[in-house]
Amino acid sequence: xxxxxxxxxxxxxxxxxxxxxxxxxxxxxxxxxxxxxxxxxxxxxxxxxxxxxxxxxxxxxxxxxxxxxxxxxxxxxxxxxxxxxxxxxxxxxxxxxxxxxxxxxxxxxxxxxxxxxxxxxxxxxxxxxxxxxxxxxxxxxxxxxxxxxxxxxxxxxxxxxxxxxxxxxxxxxxxxxxxxxxxxxxxxxxxxxxxxxxxxxxxxxxxxxxxxxxxxxxxxxxxxxxxxxxxxxxxxxxxxxxxxxxxxxxxxxxxxxxxxxxxxxxxxxxxxxxxxxxxxxxxxxxxxxxxxxxxxxxxxxxxxxxxxxxxxxxxxxxxxxxxxxxxxxxxxxxxxxxxxxxxxxxxxxxxxxxxxxxxxxxxxxxxxxxxxxxxxxxxxxxxxxxxxxxxxxxxxxxxxxxxxxxxx
Length: 408
Prior knowledge:
The chain contains 16 helices and 4 strands. With 408 residues, the protein is mainly alpha-helical. It has one domain.
């Protein structure tokens, strides 16, 4: 008798569970795939949700404060501030790219500034071709620096950069190909740890020396500058500055969601396992070199996109962007914010670069000492960065609440 009652209860439970499953699947099917994916990512990532909300708020507030609010108002945002915020967004995207390989794959790259600069040069070459005959020398075919150096024809690697789609392709393809070749050689040789970091730093230093040479055809130490238009719109117009800011914010949001999707996937779990125990992951049958190479190439392409967004906003790109010091400073951004979180890298980029803007204006001789002291303090007392400090505080609060509930 009791067996029959239990069997009936199980059948009833299975039917109700099946109905709930079908209803849930029907609700999911009624929503676009991208919407369900984004909602799932936001629900599982509280810090990321706060960051995305802040970015979308900036996307609404900044254009209104610059274009709608009159200049006499205290709430007006100057074009200089808009450009500065856009630059911070590009740096945040670059920090996100580094956190993807350092925080989740354990690859401390001291050469990501090279990928950033290559993307910037690709966009700069397109902007130089758009000058047409409005340069100092009035040459419609050659940039001013080539006329000055007595070049008679455009180098072959400049062909195609008069087309925007080709420039966008090169923005991702050039850093990606360099990362593919470099990563395949190093990961295949199982170079890891500090040795890999030194090699990446040597790579960016070699590119710095190469791009300083006038014979390379990239403007030498002066680089590429004096840009006029982007897609036919003047770069000096306030509306264009706001549009570039908005593009930077939207690209950062999309890159964050993509990166979060990657690290939460099965692929991301293997990458994290490679970071924590590479030998064991390889013993389980995974080709860890392929995983490391894929994440390294994707990170390089994100860095190239950041560089492409950066150049039209600041109006110049030169070999100093390849400097190893820039790549080391990038590591400080991620460490201060908190690596292995994605949103921590973005926060760190904003905090450190705002401090740099303030100190280089108020106390320029103090900035480098302040940056070094900040990195030492974070390494000693905040190994998980600012985000880790808040996470620890929230965890202790939850533990105290659980202890009080248990005592009650």
